Amino acid sequence: MGMSKSRDCFGYPLSIFFIVVNEFCERFSYYGMRALLILYFTRFIGWDDNLSTAIYHTFVALCYLTPILGALIADSWLGKFKTIVSLSIVYTIGQAVTAVSSIHDLTDFDHDGTPDNLSVHIALSMTGLALIALGTGGIKPCVSAFGGDQFEEGQEKQRNRFFSIFYLAINAGSLLSTIITPMLRVQLCGIHSKQACYPLAFGVPAALMAVSLIVFVIGSGMYKKFQPQGNIMGKVVKCIGFAIKNRFRHRSKAFPKREHWLDWAREKYNERLISQIKMVTRVMFLYIPLPMFWALFDQQGSRWTLQATTMNGKIGLLELQPDQMQTVNAILIIIMVPIMDAVVYPLIAKCGFNFTSLKKMTVGMFLASMAFVVAAIVQVEIDKTLPVFPKQNEVQVKVLNIGNSSMTVSFPGSVVTLPQMTQTNEFMTFDVDKLTSINISSPGSPITPVTYNFEQGHRHTLLVWDPIYYRVVKDGLNQKPEKGENGIRFVNSFDESFNITVGENAFVNVTSHNASEYQFFSLGVKNFTLSSTQQIPQNCTKNFQSSNLEFGSAFTYVIRREDTGCPKMYEFEDISPNTINMALQIPQYFLLTCGEVVFSVTGLEFSYSQAPSNMKSVLQAGWLLTVAVGNIIVLIVAGAGQFSEQWAEYILFAALLLVVCIIFAIMARFYTYVNPAEIEARFDNEDEKKNLENMNKYATVAPVSQTQM
């Protein structure tokens, strides 16, 4: 083992600070890049949402599966230090390749701002992402274990504190980068044409990865480095295999039982290896229930963000976007980790309660499960305010009278009379089979039947402007607008078509007595400018304003010509804005974050402290594997169980985690904590004794033989 003089600073080895800074830069780099990925896939490469999401989740799962590879390389071949350095180089190259793949000028030969050969960009970015997955996954288990290696025996307290600081660095890095990289993306850049600046937004993480590598190498002289001890994983697998085979051979009653199934490997393997494997298998066994925690935890990026899109983001003076709610988690962690370490744990200890690692983890699971109960309660509150959308076999219709006289429309079972420029307040819901006839009538004119093939599961607007003229428009909105935006469409009651511009968006060629498609806008007051094929008199205004748009609403604006010849605008609400405040999500984020702090930080530390010295990275990788499996559970559950009610899915997850939590608590009762260093020291002593005995044997052989003669 290569030792170098370890210097101290506040009772911590100085080398720790290099490791923490390295981790901060690496996480900034990783999360910064990850924050852009979905948008890069959809907007730059142009994949649809489903493909993008699938590739994104595959990438994330890969990043948590490759740690096993990194751990094997570190524990059995290169050692942690060399593994971190070499894989960081791979990682930096991957970041750089991804940044290059996002330069639109690379294949933009006609200089129109869009790449001409997309396959080059796709190939480059996939190569880059594969290298990143290998790099980030490969160094993940090594960095935390390498940090733990820097402490001496008897520095357990500092070591626990280190895992907390380490976790803090992870979250500080992710918080800053999720705020900063989207700002960089919005900048415009390019050689021949200016486009959203993905190269800069991907380039900054790449630069930070290089910084992270340099910082780590600078500290090289101060680290405690342990030599790897041959292919340890191979030995473990062979030893377990042998034990099982051997146990199976001796299954009859004739053979005495052995204390532990691994003791059946004694014939072939030494006690030290067997006891080390026992430590690992006992911890791995405890890991079996843990993915369930991560399955819930990882939904704050997907399900909870979708929940936020149906809420109102005005919190005091702040106006939050739904995807910014995730930063609440990182902010809370940065607050909660020090509070737990400095306040909560010492208080619990003062009360004389022995709050062991596994008890902490059980509490963490319980808190996460409660977070989902709270999420379900919030969801029920939201559902009360949501509009009712048509089910698969239903059709919804509303009537909008854009003519100059009053109209009567009769549906099966109801009759509606509308004065001019009014609409029915609600959408009326009908079973497809029941919607047999709709008739329009007006005083002193014949009855007109409406013939239209209504599409199941959709909303429709029936525009009427004359007893014999009507048009049915399919709305195309059968859910709240995404990302908390607001839908706007225009209805033209002129006799000729017109164009309307709203900010940068244009509604082109809205034909006479027809409705445009919806387009989506963020919050605030919007200005509309009208231009028509026929002349609008000079003295008329062509500019109109919307009401103040909030979150998740949809409006129809009818433009009609007044008697003076001037256009006038009428506003109709299709979907009311979200009313429940996003601040209501804070309790569930708070519970989940507290759960994460007691569960995740403790898990890192527990995995390190219970692992034998030659398998520290392997157990860290096992811990990260539970995260990967959690991600996969989400993909399966989300794919398999389509709940009609979102709150029911939350309750299901909460219940699953509660059951798992109880099972885990029972498993933890039977776990006895070990001190790997002590056990290994005992074996070292025994080895020394044996060596001495052997020496003595040879020393005393001659005299004995003489006396026997």
Quick take:
One of its GO terms (molecular function) is oligopeptide transmembrane transporter activity. Keywords: Cell membrane, Glycoprotein, Membrane, Peptide transport, Protein transport, Symport, Transmembrane, Transmembrane helix, Transport. With 709 residues, this protein is of the alpha+beta class.
Observed structural traits:
single chain; 709 residues; alpha+beta; disordered C terminus
What does this structure look like?
By secondary structure, the protein is of the alpha+beta class. Helix content is 53%, strand content 15%. The protein has 16 helices and 24 strands. Helix 1 runs antiparallel to helix 6, helix 12 packs antiparallel against helix 13 and helix 13 packs antiparallel against helix 14. The C terminus is likely disordered.
